[in-house]
Amino acid sequence: MVASSVLSAAIRTGIESAKNNRADPEKLWQQAQLAQVEQNAIAGDVDAQFQLGILYLLRQEPGAADWICHAANQGHGKAQLQYGHLFNEDRKRDDLFPFISIGPDNVQAFIWYSLSANNGEPRGVLFRNSVKQTGLNSQRLHSALAGVENWKPTPCGHPAALTQTQSTSADSSK
User: Fold this and answer.
1) 14 falls within a domain
2) Half-sphere exposure of 86 (CA within 13 A, CB side)
3) Which residues have a Cβ under 8 Å from the Cβ of 48 and sit 6 or more positions away?
């Protein structure tokens, strides 16, 4: 009787251990999807760059702003809107993205919101007008309007995934 109790306990422990060590299919699927998005983003797919930036933003991972910036520089309206949010001085007050190192700057927010509106993102108009009314004096508005008129792509930095992939492929080519 004692032997059967010990055997039953051992079987239960083995089953529990197997369950705990088994890969979660949902987690594996998410990892595979993330790897595909990363690969597409690195290859230059603007939608994948934006999607990856948002995923990183939601997960509070480094590189979020860089990926959004890369997509925004290529004229992706939603990326431009989101990049504007990263500069919006209200986000600092509300502490929306404490892990983002971009300093709040409503002139830059206005520029990015304007670019998003110019690229067909209707919310860009709303946010641009909001920043214009509440966050810019006449001198800063003049600067912002000039920034929109003279806009050129901005340096984005190198997202962690891009840097890791490039260093990995460089290592493998040696």
Assistant:
1) no
2) 22
3) 37, 38, 40, 41
Quote the pTM value: 0.75
Distance CA 83, CA 69 (A): 6
Instruction: Please give the Cα distance from 16 to 107 (Å, whole number).
Output: 57
Count of domains observed in the chain: 1
Within 13 Å and on the Cβ side, how many CA atoms surround 63? 20
Nearest to 117 by CA among 103, 130, 101, 100: 130
User: Is 165 a member of any domain?
Assistant: no
pLDDT digits (tens, 9 = 90+) for 97-153: 777 878 889 999 999 999 999 999 999 999 999 999 987 999 999 999 999 999 999
Q: HSE (CB half, 13 Å, CA atoms) of 59?
A: 11
What does the DSSP assignment read for 53-78?
HHHHHHTT-TTHHHHHHHHHHTT-HH
170 lies in a domain? no
Which 8-state DSSP code applies to residue 142?
Answer: H
Question: CATH number for the domain including 121?
Answer: 1.25.40
Calculate the alpha carbon distances from 121 to 87, 97, 113, 151, 160 in Å. Answer: 17, 22, 9, 17, 28
Residue span of the structural domain in which 142 resides: 26-151
Phi, psi of 80 (to 5 degrees): -65, -40
Residue 171 within any structural domain of the chain: no
